[in-house]
Amino acid sequence: MEEQPDPRPPSRVRAGASAAAGQAKIEWAEAHMPVLHAVCTDIAARGGMRGVRVGICLHLEAKTAALAAALHRAGALVAITGSNPLSTQDDVSAALASLGPRVYAWHAPTPEEYAGFLRDVLDTRPEVILDDGGDLIALLHAERPEQASGVRGATEETTTGLHRLRAMAAEGVLRFPVIAVNDAKMKYLFDNRYGTGQSAWEGILRATNLLVAGKEVLVCGYGWCGRGVARRAQGLGARVTVAEVDPIAANEAILDGCRVRPALEAVADADFIVTCTGNRGVLGREHFLRCRDGAVLANAGHFNVEVDAAQLAELAVERRVVRPLVEEFRLADGRRLHLLAEGRLVNLAAGDGHPVEIMDISFAIQALCLEAAACDGSRMARAVIPVPEEIDRCVARLRLQAAGAAIDELTAEQRAYLQSWH
Q1: Residue 259 in domain
Q2: Is residue 69 one of the residues assigned to a domain?
Q3: pLDDT for the residue 6
Q4: Domain assignment of residue 6, yes or no
Q5: Which stretches of the chain drop beneath a pLDDT of 70?
Q6: In the list 18, 238, 319, 347, which could disulfide-bond 203, CB 3.0-4.6 Å?
Q7: What is the CATH number of the domain that holds 308?
Q8: How far apart are CA 324 and CA 237, in angstroms?
Q9: Do 206 and 160 fall within a single domain?
Q10: DSSP string computed for 180-237
């Protein structure tokens, strides 16, 4: 039988990028991702992804490349772009393009190029979509609603993306099911907390080379990401204050050993301020006017709207880059505020993102949910739906095996006891 030509447009990656260096990064990640390997080996054996067109919008670095390559080996036709202009690594993009997936991304694209890459992925007419922040799904609905009927289902990686998609569902415009991967226990309990906690501080420290011990840290938002950032700051020897709008989360922060104060008060004492809310305008003009000299401002949320960089620029009488990814804004009274990575996601714009072992868990869930969407999406509601519990538990068991750990099982008598009201 004559082989059909690949309908996907050719890759668009930066010319001259070192594919060899990117391949080494991907191999390092793959060597520490046993759960993803096991899951994708099973998916390949079942054949459910064979020939399925997969559109991906994710931070394009080595761990994401390992996921895309694993899906390709399982038989999927993968097209991928980056979900953040500063997180794409050109050597990884070049290497991934040589492995089979179509890649449309390079580091620091213009807004027009970024949107063009999203459209390149849509040009492949994906049947399932993996999104990070909702950009790809939102663009599909806004510009190409006629394509939605060809999408069996999708997955979403982030809290921010789920906010957008649930708003679409509430308005009745969401045209296919979206599995809320971010809400899986094996995702948010590990990725959001331990992943963000470690990688955010890695990005901050790599960018600044400053000491954290003995400093004042303000964490804005005490969701799972904020919990992780605060806990790691405590571990580094900082005194941590939390700003919150949820009284329950604020009480939890207190019992976790943090002070709780309104952000407008707390910024005056903070050496480091880290936003973790997923909302916009968390730090604005009034906050900047109260910040102490030398304060470092970083965002560990999703989009670059949490720190209002435009208002900061309006207040500044002088601005300069003092280190790579560190921009100094000098105010009229001489105080200097330092914004990291243009206010973009600091763990990926100034670092390599979450630890490999954390993304091994998250991407294993993603792979299984993509298979579920490809095989069963037509029977799912056009809504944001939870990750099936069996997928969550499957990944949990595989992770225990990879860690060389084992757990007990209930006896028949214990199960009967728990099910009885007597």
Answers
A1: yes
A2: yes
A3: 74
A4: no
A5: 1-5
A6: 347
A7: 3.40.50.720
A8: 25
A9: no
A10: EGGGSHHHIIIIIIIIHHHHHHHHHHHHH----TT-EEEEE--SHHHHHHHHHHHHTT
Rounded to the nearest 5 degrees, what angle is found at the Cα of 402, between the Cα atoms of 400 and 403?
A: 65
317 and 394 in a common domain: no
Domain boundary among 327, 349, 371: 349
Rounded to an integer, what is the distance from CA 121 to the centroid of its chain?
19
Domain boundary among 349, 378, 394: 349
Q: Do residue 41 and residue 124 come from a single domain?
A: yes
Q: State how many domains the chain has.
A: 2
In the prediction, which pLDDT does 1 show?
41
Return the structure tokens found at 131.
Answer: 């999104």
Q: Looking at the structure, tell me whether residues 156 and 201 fall in a common domain.
A: no
Q: Which two tokens stand for residue 38?
A: 């096991």
Characterize the bridge pairing of strands 336-340 and 326-331. Answer: antiparallel
312 in any annotated domain: yes
pLDDT for 132 equals 96
Q: Report the C-alpha gap between 159 and 115 in whole angstroms.
A: 22
Task: Find the helix or strand (DSSP H, E) in which 250 lies.
Answer: helix 247-255
Q: Per DSSP, what are the bridge partners of residue 239?
A: 216
Strands 336-340 and 296-299, how do they pair?
parallel
Backbone angles phi, psi at 103, to 5 degrees: -125, 130
- Is 329 exposed, middle or buried (CB count within 10 Å of its CB: 0-12, 13-18, 19+)? buried
How many CB atoms sit inside 10 A of residue 54's CB? 25
Domain coverage including residue 295 = 194-349
Element (H, E) at 140: helix 135-143
Are residues 165 and 48 part of one domain? yes
- Mark whether 153 and 203 lie in a shared domain: no
Q: How much is the CA Rg of the chain, to the nearest whole Å?
A: 22
DSSP H or E segment with residue 319: strand 316-323
pTM: 0.93
Give yes or no for a contact between 185 and 203, defined as CB atoms under 8 angstroms apart.
Answer: no
Query: What is the 8-class DSSP label of residue 278?
Result: S
Token code pair at residue 68: 């895309």
Helix axes 19-31, 90-98, angle to 10 degrees: 80
Q: Does 265 share its domain with 151?
A: no
Among left, alpha and beta (phi > 0; psi -120 to 50; other), residue 299 is beta
Structure-block tokens of residue 21: 């260096």
